[in-house]
Write a structure and sequence with these properties.
Elements lengths: L19 E4 L5 H10 L2 E4 L6 H7 L5 E4 L7 H6 L5 E4 L9 H6 L4 E2 L6 H16 L2 H9 L17 E5 L3 H12 L3 E5 L11 E2 L3 H7 L2 E4 L13 H6 L4 E5 L8 H9 L3 E6 L23 E3 L8 H21 L5 E2 L13 E8 L4 H11 L4 E8 L3 E8 L4 H9 L4 E7 L1
Parallel strand pairs: 1-2, 1-3, 3-4, 4-5, 6-7, 6-9, 7-8, 9-10, 10-11, 11-12
Antiparallel strand pairs: 5-13, 14-16, 14-17, 15-16
Helix pairs in contact: 1-11, 5-7
């Protein structure tokens, strides 16, 4: 199971062609190529799978790759007896029941930085398009109408951009907006270092009242669900604009439609929605359709060739490192271990419930079989522990077998 970095012979603890990898939702070919190069058994599907469809397939899958449409529930994880890891080929991981994944000892990897620039560029493009009513003028031209007007069209230079959520994407948006002459303020629940002349404000209310454009870049949490509703839109400057390229649950769509109809807001741009179609052949319906100066896009903020290739490589690399060496760096809610290179030893990896006495029991087993431990690394969180041991070859299978039988063990495997 080890790649060329870790393997000193052609023998592996589990034949690579029997390690089943399932990639869903058109993951970029860069990820497919990396898996195929390793010799794993790769199956790909262009669409998402429902819970029942996953339940029918997951029992013999070792590695699962998804994007944003496939939901990994507790039921699916219960059935996934052989699952080693999940890769989310996107920024978020809210489509996975992370608590259940943690309980079952399955690390989840994502790509929190790879599409940052792509999303930031789209935000800036949509700000310009909203200020110039570009979407309306383009639609009119396609309809055969020539309307050369300047009314309600503005430069963005000198306008105030308010960024809600000043993380990786938010900071990139701030840098780009400032370079175009905008004045940038931001609000975040955590302290953030301002970039350039970007300026923090103390409250969301202050940001809404001060901004000509408000752009949202927050994760989906209980705190952000319905973050921008009717009262927040009434607090925004009359004639301002709202952009949401974060998560669909953050904005109350009905309240936004009312704010646009009442001309309290001059326009909006949305790339994410509370209910999104499962695939490209499905019909999209929204209260925001056919309204003036409203830009709607089908969750394409990170869908550039550059972003998707980078995501494909980043997530697949993390998955392969975990499968081949046990490295869990970059995993979500899973103990992080980055073990040294495996040389002339066998590696036992054990995920267990984090209760007193586990390490003592494992060390007792090691002692009884007279194993020579070269390295032993343990990392824990509040629920589980992750132990990586490098020891002499002769006893590795016996150690793995006995450790796996401990009542505290969740998943145990050996690498060589």
């Amino acid at each position: 199971m080890a790649d060329s970095t870790y393997n000193s012979s052609t023998e592996t603890s589990f034949p690579k062609d029997r390690i089943k990898v399932l990639f869903l939702e058109n993951i970029h070919p860069s990820g497919n190529a990396m898996v195929a190069e390793q010799g794993f058994c790769l199956d790909t599907l262009g669409a998402a799978l429902s819970e029942n469809e996953l339940l029918a397939r997951i029992s013999d899958i070792h590695v699962l790759g998804i994007r944003s449409k496939t939901h990994i529930t507790a039921r699916v994880l219960e059935e996934a007896k052989r699952l080693l890891a999940i890769g989310c080929y996107c920024i978020g991981t809210n489509q996975v029941d992370l608590a259940a994944a943690n309980r079952h000892g399955v690390p989840v990897f994502n790509a929190p930085f790879s599409n940052t620039r792509s999303v930031a560029e789209l935000v800036i493009g949509e700000i310009v398009a909203l200020a110039h009513q570009l979407a309306d003028r383009s639609r009119e031209m396609h309809e055969g109408r020539w309307r050369k007007i300047a009314t309600a069209s503005f430069e963005i230079r000198g306008k105030v951009l308010g960024i809600v959520g000043y993380g990786h994407i938010g900071t990139q948006v701030g840098i780009l907006a400032e370079s175009m002459g905008m004045n940038v303020i931001f609000y975040d629940i955590a302290p953030r270092l301002p970039m350039g002349n970007n300026r923090p404000v103390a409250t969301l209310s202050e940001l809404l009242q001060s901004s000509d454009f408000v752009t949202l870049h927050v994760p989906e949490t209980s705190q952000t669900k319905g973050l921008i509703g009717d009262s927040e839109m009434r607090a925004m400057r009359p004639g301002s604009y709202l952009l949401n390229l974060s998560r669909g649950s953050v904005v109350d769509i009905n309240a936004l439609a009312n704010a646009l109809d009442e001309r309290r807001l001059a326009g909006a741009a949305l790339d994410v929605f509370p209910d999104e179609p499962a695939g490209n052949t499905s019909t999209f319906v929204s209260d925001l359709q056919n309204r003036a100066n409203v830009i709607l896009s089908p969750h394409v903020g990170g869908s550039t060739e550059e972003a998707q290739e980078s995501i494909g490589r980043e997530v697949t690399n993390a998955l392969l490192k975990y499968v081949n060496s046990g490295t869990s760096t970059g995993s979500v809610i899973f103990p992080v271990v980055d073990p040294p290179q495996l040389k002339d030893r066998h590696r036992v990896l054990n995920v267990h419930r984090n209760v007193p006495g586990v390490l003592s029991n494992i060390n007792r087993i090691v002692s009884e079989v007279h194993a020579n431990i070269e390295s032993q690394i343990l990392s824990t969180d509040s629920n589980i522990g992750y132990l990586v041991m490098d020891l002499n070859r002769e006893v590795s299978d016996e150690v793995r077998s006995q450790v796996a039988k401990l009542p505290t063990s969740i998943r145990t495997r050996v690498l060589y």
